[in-house]
Design brief:
Length: 473
């Protein structure tokens, strides 16, 4: 009954804001949810049949509640004004210049969101950090809000999001946990309860964890660091497998059977990508350094170092096995997204691998079922960390890379190629007609499987020279 009056506004209609708010609207029919964004194009897409992000199951959820209790709008001020709970789900990229450049989180978007909330609020509000932010950010946000409050009461909560792309809807329907951090004052505790009641519409109480603000903020950075660390651990072992004749899939299976370790997140790969693992670990490293903890910082920094090593190791493997040069050779790249079932290319390992191959003057032909040519060209032309910053801040606008072509078909991409690199684990790459691909390639035909999707033995029987991550050569 109490929930009847709750109005939610979410700032940031991105990969997190869009799906999380759609699911809240679906599961809480009595709550009105408005998602706002400064990007007019993004909001228009959310209001169209072609949603701005590809996520299995998302279309269905949006269709059920859009226009009922889920709205997408660019009228930011109006909807903040009307809301009881304001989620902030704006981007928090790595700083590219100034203090902490290349490591610290850039809170420009967050700060301007907070100032906007302070400016337009005319009634008490609960402000929820949904974005991943450095620990202690709530203190800064509180300062901005309180010093501009004109008598309005703001409660800040930390409610980090743990969804993974490609499985966002499933993760939101059935989360391992929902984490809510708040102040330990009576008002703080009350605010925690209000947000808890929203989630309690579909998440069982034992999965809703409440903590203090700093624990909630830090848990998010720690969880991503632990996840990324597992991948760097298995990837480090994959290098040793290649050197010794062990098979990383067998090793990971045996290790993961230990219930204390568990079987998930142990797939060796060409490296982890995605918009968050690297940026969040760099942010964690910077926070450790600022707190006088250089040993802790360097421990986590090595997770990134191993990931960078894995990507460059892959490029070196391609070049060295193709007689030490790929100059003017056609290399087909299958998969560009940072993982399957998403069109997202942010920090995808494919960018570094392609840049490495281009550095050796290869001609690259790329196929990904969800990524457009325009996106790929933009990604390959941008500098590290620049992708999440407005284009007008960049010194020169990117021009297309001539050595790169993009096709909409794996057979077209591999036609006449000297080598094939599989960089995303799309299911369809398991089912390709590799006999046909082999016949249309230059010989010897090389295949480098950065995701362990093909059976090396079967492809060797066809005639390919095969290199798979962490597999006997
Ligand atoms: P995104 O770039 O897809 O979306 C952010 C949106 O915020 C953009 O559309 C941008 O235009 C908008 N925005 C920026 N400033 C604004 C303002 N002042 N008012 C209104 N809108 C504004 O980013 P994302 O992937 O959704 O990530 C958002 C946050 O969530 C990040 O902190 C990220 O670390 C965290 N996160 C992301 C994921 C993920 O899978 N992508 C998962 C968990 C947490
Ligand atoms: C990750 C976390 O899994 C989410 O819990 C978190 O909310 C999110 O980051 C975030 O904060 O942004 P996401 O990046 O969407 O989610 O996708 P993951 O499934 O974690 O994959 C990340 C990268 O690791 C991908 O490139 C993937 O291919 C790679 N990976 C994953 C491996 O190389 N091996 C594995 O075993 C698992």
């Amino acid at each position: 009954q109490k929930l009847k009056m709750v109005k939610i506004c979410c700032l940031g209609a991105g990969y997190v804001g869009g799906p999380t708010m759609a699911v809240i609207a679906l599961k809480c029919p009595s709550v009105e949810v408005v998602v706002v964004d400064i990007s007019v194009a993004r909001i228009a897409a959310w209001n169209s049949d072609q949603l701005p992000i590809y996520e299995p199951g998302l279309d269905d959820v949006v269709k059920q509640c859009r226009g009922r209790n889920l709205f997408f709008s660019t009228e930011i001020e109006k909807h903040i004004g009307q809301a009881d709970i304001v989620f902030v789900s704006v981007n928090t990229p790595t700083k590219t210049r100034g203090l902490g450049a290349g490591k610290a989180a850039d809170l420009t978007y967050w700060e301007s969101a907070a100032r906007m909330i302070a400016d337009v609020a005319k009634s008490d509000k609960i402000v929820v950090e949904k974005s991943t932010v450095p620990v202690k950010t709530a203190e800064a946000i509180e300062k901005i809000l309180i010093h501009n409050s004109r008598g309005i009461n703001f409660q800040i909560l930390s409610n980090p999001e743990f969804l993974a792309e490609g499985t966002a809807i499933q993760d939101l329907f059935n989360p391992d946990r929902v984490l809510i951090g708040g102040r330990e004052t009576p008002e703080g505790k009350k605010a925690v309860q209000v947000l808890k009641q929203v989630y309690a519409n579909w998440v069982s109480e034992d999965r809703i964890i409440t903590t203090n603000l700093w624990s909630a903020e830090l848990s998010k950075l720690a969880a991503n660091a632990f996840l990324a660390q597992r991948i760097s651990s298995v990837n480090a072992i994959s290098a040793l497998c290649e050197a010794t004749g062990a098979d990383v899939a067998e090793v990971a299976y045996s290790v993961g059977k230990d219930t204390r370790i568990g079987p998930k997140f142990l797939s060796a790969s060409v490296g982890f990508g995605g918009s968050c693992f690297q940026k969040d670990i760099l942010s964690l490293v910077y926070i450790c350094e600022c707190n006088g903890l250089p040993e802790v910082a360097s421990y986590w920094k090595d997770v990134i170092k191993v990931n960078d090593y894995q990507k460059s190791r892959f490029v070196n493997r391609v070049v060295s096995s193709m007689f030490n040069t790929v100059s003017e050779k056609k290399i087909a790249v299958l998969g560009f997204a940072f993982k399957k079932d998403t069109g997202d290319t942010r920090e995808t390992p494919a960018i570094d691998v392609c840049k490495g191959l281009l550095g050796d003057k290869a001609k690259i032909s790329i196929y990904d079922p969800q990524v457009s040519e325009e996106q790929i060209q933009r990604d390959l032309a941008l500098k590290k960390f620049d992708w999440d910053h407005p284009v007008h801040l960049q010194p020169t606008s990117p021009t297309a890379v001539k050595q790169v072509t993009v096709t909409w078909d794996a057979y077209e991409a591999t036609k006449g190629a000297h080598g094939v690199c599989i960089l995303t684990e799309w299911d369809e790459f398991r089912k390709l007609d590799y006999v046909k691909i082999y016949e249309n390639m230059q010989k010897p035909a090389f295949i480098f499987d950065g995701r362990n999707v093909i059976d090396p033995q079967k492809l060797r029987e066809i005639g390919f020279i095969v290199f798979s991550i962490g597999k006997p050569l």
